[in-house]
Design goal:
With 359 residues, the chain is an all-beta fold. It has strands spanning 13-15, 26-28, 30-31, 34-35, 44-48, 51-52, 59-62, 65-68, 78-84, 125-129, 136-140, 164-167, 173-176, 183-191, 198-200, 211-221, 228-233, 247-254, 259-266, 271-273, 286-296, 299-311, 314-324, 332-337, 342-352. A hairpin with a 4-residue loop joins strand 18 (247-254) and strand 19 (259-266).
Length: 359
């Protein structure tokens, strides 16, 4: 653009806050009490004791610190420090005037192309807004106290469905499929004496997982010679909804002296008998084991278990499988000792992230 007369000079001309000389050579440069970093030592005019100082020779700068060639005394006078912006620069652009075409951040082997700084209190944060700029998500640096300095290098592609990112220990990321048997602990119930049942409702049995693992630890009944059972329900809106499905059970019961097989169906009832009536209530008796349970709205729910109980000096190894022959989605599971209460024990429920069970 042509001008009548001399073209205007564009720059950033700043007079720094006054500095008081003391017995030191280094001083912090500020504007309105905020640290100021000149572009270079050659953009400055410094007057000391009425004499204009020579850049680099009489003083140097590093960030917002000016260092004179020798230590000053309180009798010295730092008259003024002027900073003149590069007159070839355009100055400070107005808000929202820098477009994509005007930005070209170049990374080098020693520095990032774009740096998001903290303000001394808040860690550096990058926000990605929605199309209407009414909200967004933020990527935030670790806190200053972590002294964290590392680089994360992203994979070459976007990975496959259900994969997750992993690191090689040096910040290089890659996609990986979670290994089988990844468990998420959902709930642990420590049983108190007199408890009649242990329930896991729809806040735990959710659509997040299709397979669950129940771990039974030292379950002791109040009554002797009892059996352990499970009940499942499709709807627990007002509590346990019984009689809403057919359950078919197969149990194999092995003791030191005999082997028994129990194959039967329980029509229109949700009780699943997991053991024979061989669980004792003595101090060294009870039952422990595990049960895998799968539930899917499109298929019948299935379970398989392996339990060990003791009673009257005998050890019983019992395992079995069951399925519920409707398409209802179970979201309520509870466990009981038949006809009696618990003395003690623990039941823990895990959601299985990735698992394959052949029923």
């Amino acid at each position: 653009m042509a001008y009548i007369g001399k073209s205007p000079t564009v720059g950033n001309f700043v007079k720094l806050d006054a500095l008081t000389a003391s017995a030191t050579a280094s001083y912090t440069m500020q504007v309105d009490s905020v640290n100021f970093n000149p572009e270079s030592v050659n953009h400055m005019m410094v007057s000391l004791n009425g004499v204009i100082q020579s850049p680099t020779t009489s003083y140097t700068i590093s960030g917002s610190t000016i260092t004179f060639a020798s230590t000053l005394a309180s009798s010295d006078s730092i008259d003024f420090i002027m900073v003149y912006g590069n007159v070839l620069d355009i100055g400070t652009p107005s808000d929202a005037t820098v477009t994509n075409a005007k930005t070209n951040f170049v990374s080098t082997s020693s520095s990032a192309g774009l740096q998001i700084k903290g303000d001394g209190t808040t860690d550096g944060t990058l926000q990605l807004n929605c199309s209407q700029n009414s909200h967004g998500i933020k990527l935030k640096s670790p806190p200053h106290s972590a002294s964290a300095s590392y680089t994360l290098t992203f994979p070459n592609d976007d990975g496959d469905a259900d994969q997750v990112l992993k690191t090689n220990g040096s910040g290089v990321l890659d996609w990986t499929t979670p290994s089988s048997g990844s468990f998420a602990k959902l709930s642990t119930v420590d049983i108190s004496s007199g408890d009649s049942l242990v329930a896991f409702n729809s806040s735990i049995i959710t659509t997040t997982y299709k397979q669950y693992l129940f771990m039974f630890t030292n379950l002791r009944p109040t009554g002797d010679n009892t059996y352990f059972k499970m009940q499942e329900s499709t709807n627990n809106g007002g509590g346990f909804l019984a009689n809403d499905a057919d359950s078919f059970i197969s149990i194999n019961n092995t003791s030191w002296s005999s082997t028994e097989n129990l194959n039967h169906s329980v029509t229109n009832n949700t009780d699943i008998q997991l053991t024979q009536d061989n669980i004792g209530n003595g101090t060294l008796e009870g039952m422990s084991g595990q049960m895998f349970f799968s539930r899917d709205g499109a298929n019948a729910s299935k379970g398989n278990w392996e339990l060990v109980s003791t009673n009257n000096g005998h050890v019983y190894h019992q395992h079995g499988a069951s399925y519920r022959d409707d398409a209802g989605t179970t979201n309520y599971v509870r466990f009981q000792m038949q006809g009696t209460t618990f003395i003690s024990g623990r039941i823990t429920c895990y959601g299985i992230v990735t698992w394959c069970i052949k029923m």
